[in-house]
UniProtKB/TrEMBL annotation:
GO terms for molecular function: hydrolase activity, hydrolyzing O-glycosyl compounds. It comes from Candidatus Cohnella colombiensis. GO terms for cellular component: outer membrane. PROSITE patterns: G5 (PS51109). The chain crosses the membrane at residues 27-48. This is G5 domain-containing protein. Pfam families: 3D, DUF348, G5. InterPro entries: 3D_dom (IPR010611), 3D_YorM (IPR059180), DUF348 (IPR007137), G5_dom (IPR011098), Resuscitation_pf_RpfB (IPR051933), RlpA-like_sf (IPR036908). GO terms for biological process: peptidoglycan turnover. Gene3D superfamilies: Resuscitation-promoting factor rpfb (2.20.230.10), RlpA-like domain (2.40.40.10).
Amino acid sequence: MGPTPIAGAHDPRPTGKLFALRWKHEYLRRILLGAILTFSIIVMFISLEHRASTKQVSIVEDGIPSVIQTRTTNVLALLEEQEIQLNVHDQLSVSMTDSLKDGSVIVIDRAKGITVQADGHEELKFTTADTVGEAVEALNLSLGSEDLISPSISTSVEEGMKVTVTRVKTEIIETSEPIGFSVVQEKNANLAEGKQKIVTTGQEGILIHKTMNTYKNGKLVSEKLVESVVSKEAVNQVVAVGTKKAQVSMLSYNGKPTAVEASVVNLNGKSVKVKRTLSNVTLTAYHAGFASTGKNKGDKGYGITASGTTVEEGRTIAVDPDVIPMGWWVYIEGIGFRRAEDTGSAIKGKKIDVFYESESYVNKFGKKRGYTVYVIGPVKPTAN
């Protein structure tokens, strides 16, 4: 048997209204819990998505790095987001369309404006190079091996700086200078005493000077002698000096006895026997006009010599008859054969006045000293 219920005890049954209230409360609680759970899941997914789309990107500008958190997808969007503007000459290490990844590094090299002076021109150039040497190379400036750059190639590039290129050129110039020859005398017993004969003709040598000329921007700035070289040796002139005693005989002209040498000399290609050799003779010149003779054309005796001949250029000379007999032929070195036909008050001793037709030439002739004159005789040589 089972237990006996206590008197008056009973189990009250819920009414329908109470049941509905309980059910509604339970339903609301479940809905609220579901909403909270859903919201939490959504927040978690949003957080995960945000974390997944956020990237950490490094931007290095002019060597200074900075780290940026971004959700942009490419380089162009990042630059626009960060309001970074680029000049046309600036350089990026990546392309504008490149995608961004977490840890991406973007290097921005800002171009600097420099003034380049070269070849007479100045021009503004832009470069991202760090040094002057790198800038010159990047700008494709043509440089010679000797050209100079200021400032030096190791100098850091600064905004607004001026780079000067100096064109340098060196060249070797050769100039020649004559080397004089010496005159060597040799005694010759077969040659008459007082006579000289060139045995070996002297020849000048050549000395070459090599000079290095340096030009900067086309202007000569320095000359430096590098070396001097003898390209041709000088040849000494050998002169034979006669030691043979001349045969002396006594001749007479103008009533005066005179010692006359007898020797054979080569004159103007002819072997000529000369009676006497005069050294250190002084030459002057005259013409037939008033300035030389005191006579004008038309005057009596105009153009007539002291010996009665008519003056003739290339033949007539005035002499001292005590030195050269009238009518005798002589040979004047550098002048040629002439005949003693005239005299003059100023013509004394070893002095000869040579006749020329031109008064202007006579004026230019002046007085010439140191001539050698060979006295030949009354007959002009015509053959060997």
